[in-house]
Design the sequence.
């Protein structure tokens, strides 16, 4: 009879739910952290074991103090569930790609569209989340709550919070020397503490005052105008047409134009292009880099800004140029909000689009029609087009290239890159660079057809780089100070038609002598203004990469 009618489960107190959940999160939810600690030479033997135990107690105590504030009948289980899910997902990405969780990474997650999210799905993700979060969630929601009066629960919560903080303080004092040294010398550890890293990132993004931008959007370059340096001969009178290609995840190291041993740029090598070899990015993710590179402030100034302001495209449009943003990815990160824009990523064009994704070449199919929609009086002065690539977006690099461009084999066809041999990952990535080479070559070919009516030019620059398994790191997005060079060293290539050279005064031959100059995204805003002859008080000549090669 007892088998047929099992006894009812005894109600649990909030105290037991908080303590058990905190211990599980601290120990199981931090597998990636313990793996990192184990690999560090700073702590070995029993000393390392003792430190690991104290560190786990510190994390459990911090989580207990946090959950004690939410230990009420209607809030505790949802709060624990949220922390478990954060820990489960973060554990998978930290173990699989070597990433950490910070505010920029949270922004990337929030800005991920359904197509990018689909690329992240894998069996490994499901198994990790099921183990770290699924099992305790199943247990948690089967527990019944022991009813306690409101006042009594308040006292218990307060007592638990104080006790947890005292334990955390005591455990920290026991290992303070090692703890302080590790946090100083291995800053990635602080971003691996699950799920406190996610909690901090959320607070940093929403409520921490020092990080909030206040006030209205600031106008920029209100004095902008096109300089009066019109050509004196008919063959140089055509208005400028600049296509700024915003590359995706293209690290400089894998471009054969920059010395890579594999021939990843066979078509561009035949064009009169300049590949700048020493260019660093504003950030290590699209969400960081794109707004920064279109800003006039530079990386340091952009990070310290107190207000949001207009960007490069606003200044170009205000000066009198026609401006167009074409996006083949997940959006312009608010940079195209005030200029004409079109998204091509969801089109359904045969030969260009399949499985809900379009090749970057789809933008070339639409550019003539989209340019025709711009005001004729502005196009008569000149035009700037931004093309935002899908490029080398990972982890599903193999999806970015059609079969005829899969030059390097075998390639990784897993979304979880750590499951592939590293050379297969590199092969799949290099194939995306080969396709970018083809896209840029096709774009240059189209620009050449415009020379009868305009003075065309192209400037390509990637938003950030990528890790391809070096030191067991994959993808990008590490905090800038700790990110490896391959996540910050990006490709940048220029092509100027003879007509644009005459119109702007910029010499390609001179630029080739500048290709090893140290440059960064800080130069983009001012270089485009300089090349397009925009006069404004926000322009800084010292950040104009073209100014040294202008003969006007």
Sequence:
């Amino acid at each position: 009879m007892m088998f047929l009618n099992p006894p009812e489960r005894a109600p649990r107190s909030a105290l037991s739910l908080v303590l058990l959940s905190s211990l599980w999160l601290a120990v199981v939810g931090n597998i990636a952290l313990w793996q990192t600690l184990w690999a560090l030479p700073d702590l070995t033997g029993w000393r390392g074991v003792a430190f690991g135990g104290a560190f786990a107690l510190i994390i459990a105590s911090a989580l207990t103090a946090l959950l004690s504030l939410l230990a009420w009948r209607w809030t505790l289980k949802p709060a624990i569930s949220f922390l478990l899910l954060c820990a489960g997902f973060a554990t998978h990405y930290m173990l699989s790609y070597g990433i950490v969780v910070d505010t920029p990474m949270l922004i990337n997650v929030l800005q991920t569209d359904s197509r990018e999210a689909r690329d992240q799905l894998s069996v490994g993700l499901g198994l990790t989340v099921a183990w770290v979060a699924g099992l305790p969630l199943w247990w948690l929601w089967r527990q019944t709550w022991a009813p306690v009066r409101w006042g009594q629960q308040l006292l218990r919560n307060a007592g638990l919070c104080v006790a947890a903080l005292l334990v955390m303080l005591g455990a920290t004092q026991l290992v303070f020397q090692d703890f302080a040294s590790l946090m100083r010398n291995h800053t990635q550890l602080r971003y691996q503490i699950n799920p406190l890293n996610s909690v901090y990132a959320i607070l940093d993004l929403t409520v921490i005052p020092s990080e909030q931008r206040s006030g209205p959007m600031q106008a920029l370059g209100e004095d902008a105008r096109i300089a009066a340096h019109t050509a004196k001969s008919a063959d140089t009178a055509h208005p400028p047409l600049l296509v700024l290609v915003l590359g995706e995840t293209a690290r400089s190291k894998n471009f054969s134009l920059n010395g890579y041993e594999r021939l990843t740029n066979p078509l561009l090598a035949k064009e009169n292009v300049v590949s700048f070899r020493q260019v660093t990015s504003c950030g290590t993710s699209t969400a960081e880099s794109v707004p920064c590179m279109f800003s006039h402030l530079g990386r340091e100034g952009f990070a310290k800004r107190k207000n949001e302001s207009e960007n490069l495209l606003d200044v170009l449009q205000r000066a009198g140029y026609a401006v167009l943003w074409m996006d083949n990815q997940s959006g312009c990160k608010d940079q195209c909000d005030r200029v004409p824009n079109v998204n091509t990523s969801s089109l359904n064009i045969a030969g260009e689009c399949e499985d809900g994704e379009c090749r970057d070449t789809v933008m070339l199919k639409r550019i003539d029609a989209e340019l025709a929609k711009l005001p004729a009086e502005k196009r008569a002065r000149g035009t700037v087009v931004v093309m935002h690539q899908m490029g080398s977006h990972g982890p599903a690099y193999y999806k970015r290239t059609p079969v005829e461009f899969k030059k390097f084999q075998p390639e990784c066809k897993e979304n979880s890159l750590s499951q592939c041999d590293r050379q297969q990952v590199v092969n799949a990535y290099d194939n995306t660079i080969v396709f970018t080479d083809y896209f840029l070559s096709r774009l240059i070919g189209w620009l050449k057809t415009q020379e009868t009516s305009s003075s065309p030019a192209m400037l390509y620059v990637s938003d950030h780089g990528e890790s391809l398994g070096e030191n067991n790191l994959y993808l990008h997005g590490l905090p800038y100070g700790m990110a490896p060079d391959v996540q910050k060293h990006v490709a940048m290539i220029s092509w100027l038609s003879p007509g644009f050279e005459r119109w702007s005064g910029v010499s390609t031959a001179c630029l080739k002598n500048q290709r090893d100059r140290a440059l960064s995204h800080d130069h983009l805003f001012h270089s485009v203004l300089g090349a397009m002859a925009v006069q404004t008080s926000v322009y800084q000549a010292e950040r104009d990469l073209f100014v040294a090669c202008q003969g006007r």
